[in-house]
Amino acid sequence: MNTRYILIGISSIILLIFIFTNFSQRTLIVKRAKNVTGVNYSYGGYTLEKGFDCSGLTYWVYKKSGIQIPRNSVMQYLT
Q1: pLDDT recorded at residue 16
Q2: How big is the chain by its Cα radius of gyration, in Å?
Q3: DSSP run (H or E) holding 46
Q4: How far is CA 3 from CA 16, 24, 66, 71, in A?
Q5: Closest to 20 measured CA to CA, from 59, 53, 48, 62
Q6: Is the CB of residue 79 less than 8 Å from the CB of residue 58?
Q7: Model confidence pLDDT, tens digit, residues 37-75
Q8: Residue 47 belongs to what H/E stretch?
Q9: DSSP 3-state assignment of 61?
Q10: Residue 34 has pLDDT above 80, yes or no
């Protein structure tokens, strides 16, 4: 597992939380993100089984929380 990439992903989640959500959604999103700590980094990954890259982690956490965001980091940034 590459900790640097996981930290980048978690930072992205925190930024997007404040853009798209209210307090109760924020709490749920942070909880979901913390629950996947330790999942391996995988380039292009966006599932628990295959692992996550930065944008895949944010995509998965938001999707599981009922919020649709783009899959890749460029589109997430532009949203």
Answers
A1: 67
A2: 11
A3: strand 46-47
A4: 20, 28, 26, 21
A5: 62
A6: no
A7: 889 999 999 999 999 998 999 999 989 988 899 998 888
A8: strand 46-47
A9: helix
A10: yes
Residue 39 near residue 11 (C-beta atoms within 8 A): no
Alpha carbons 11 and 65: distance in angstroms, whole number? 17
Cβ within 8 Å of residue 74, ≥6 positions away: none
Residues 9 and 52 sit within 8 Å (Cβ to Cβ): yes
- Using N-to-C axis directions, what is the helix angle for 3-20 and 54-64, rounded to 10°? 40
Are 79 and 70 in contact by the 8 Å Cβ rule? The answer is yes
**Angstrom distances, CA of residue 72 to CA of 24, 27, 44, 79:** 25, 23, 9, 11
Round to the nearest angstrom and report the end-to-end CA distance of the chain: 28
**What's residue 49's pLDDT?**
92
